[in-house]
Structures are given as C-alpha cells and as structure tokens.
Please model this.
Amino acid sequence: MDYLEIDALVNGIIYSNDAVKQELGRRFAVYLGLTPGKSGSDGGIDGYATVNNEMIYFQSKLSQNILDASFTADFVGNLIVHEADIGIMLAGIGYTDGFRSRLEQASQSKLLNIQPKIHLLNLEDVFGETTTFKKASKDLPILRDLSNGEWAKHK
Model:
C-alpha cells in the first residue's frame, strides 16, 4: 500500500464515531491473531491471547490526537490487572514523548513485579507493515486474513 492509500485509511478511521472505532479495535485484535474483547463496555480489553505461556494484552485507542501521558496510567494499569507479559497498544496517530517517558518510568518502578514487553503501534505501522509492526508481530500469533469472512466468526 502506498502512502496516500494508508493516509486515506488512517483519516477515515480516526474521524469515525466512537462505536465504529471500538468495533475496528476488536477487528484489529482479530487481525493480530488475538481474541477480541467483548462488544460494548469491554473493561479496557480490546484483545488478548496466550502464546508460549505469555499473556498478551491489546488496547486500541484510535484517537484523532496523538496519545499523551494521560493515557499511560490506563494502559499500565490494565497490564498489571490482566497480568500481561506482552502489551500492545494501537494508537490512531501515535504517542507523545510524554507518553513514552511515563511508560518508561512505570516500567522501571520498583512497585511493579512485572516487566512486560511493550509494543506501541499506530495505524500507519499496521497498514504499512513497518519495522515496528514486524517486530511486534514476532510476539503475536499468526496474523489472520479477514478478507475471507474470518471476522464473522468473532462478532
């Protein structure tokens, strides 16, 4: 896919209404080989799986804005609550330096008994299959092809 196609997809998604974004978050989870969280109020779980005895937690925030440090506590809290070994966050656009800094501070905290692997993705990473996406994919189950109706099995 070229840059213009990716840009059109990203903009179409980030400017969608919240219900559409939530459903797309569940679809991205399925594409990533994960079990999608439930529809509606999902308790912060957009997807999950256990691979090689490692719990994977997936959260999707398809905002029009770059995710700032205020989103870090929710993500880290869910990693802890769900005892995740691997955390994957999907942002619409990306992450501020403040988000990344606070996430790094949290992962260094002496209060945390876990040191999960964390992959921060955005829609451009997924559609463009960037190096960041390929690195995250190594910690995921096999990606699913949703063009053949696979999504219907997970609604």
About this structure: The mean pLDDT is 91. The chain is about 40% helix and 15% strand.
